[in-house]
Amino acid sequence: MTKRAVILLSGGLDSVTALAIAKAEGYECFSISFDYGQRHKTELLAAENLAKKAGVASHKVIQIDLRAIGGSALTDDIDVPETEQQGIPITYVPARNTVFLSIALGWAEVLNAEAIFVGVNAVDYSGYPDCRPEFIDAFEKLANLATKSAVEGSAIYIKAPLMYLSKSEIVKRGTELGIDYSETVSCYQADAQGRACGQCDSCRFRRQGFIDAGLADPTRYQ
């Protein structure tokens, strides 16, 4: 029987690398993206394109209005910082990964999938609390308490294959797997054409990753 996995696919560099790794590990992949009230939708278009190119079995876009609660520069009328911030930055979206993983968990149960892949990283990242290994471990425990499939003996695993990789290591791994990173959108304030600002946290980590990997940066900048 073919093993199945649900992949959280944002349209950015990390999530498409997680998708490629899941495919390389022999999973039949089902990708899920979220229209959650973020400032721009170009990342959703990128995710749809990347899912199609990867040949996923199905791709879903789920609508959730996190803008209704705000509290983040990505979902509220707050400027995206263009300099390095101390502590947890204002681009952190309250409960985002908890909500996303919960919905992915529901779909995984419907599909009889054994794994959920998420591209979180605890090395070159902005310090978000819901990207830490402790969070992933805790959510996996929750998943196997909260689902019918787990109670009946079919565990669901939360896989974070990028957790301990540097951005340069992620870029190298994805390049080995044939990813065209020019088609990804990582920027927190990309324009309508998906071009990056080059200044936000996400852009800075991404650009440094290509530099450290010794690879040309294919990102389209404004």
Computed over alpha carbons, the radius of gyration is 17 Å
CATH class: Alpha Beta
User: So how many helices?
Assistant: 7
Identify the CATH architecture: 3-Layer(aba) Sandwich
Distance separating the two termini? 46 Å
| Oligomeric status | single chain
Total count of strands: 5
InterPro entries: QueC, Rossmann-like_a/b/a_fold
Keywords: ATP-binding, Ligase, Metal-binding, Nucleotide-binding, Queuosine biosynthesis, Zinc
Pathway: Purine metabolism; 7-cyano-7-deazaguanine biosynthesis
GO molecular function, one term: ligase activity, forming carbon-nitrogen bonds
SSE topology:
Blueprint: E1 4-8, H1 13-24, E2 28-35, H2 42-54, E3 58-63, H3 96-111, E4 115-117, H4 133-146, H5 148-151, E5 157-159, H6 167-176, H7 201-213
Parallel strand pairs: 1-2, 1-4, 2-3, 4-5
Helix pairs in contact: 1-2, 1-6, 6-7
Binding site for ATP: 9-19
Binding site for Zn(2+): 187, 197, 200, 203
Keywords: ATP-binding, Ligase, Metal-binding, Nucleotide-binding, Queuosine biosynthesis, Zinc
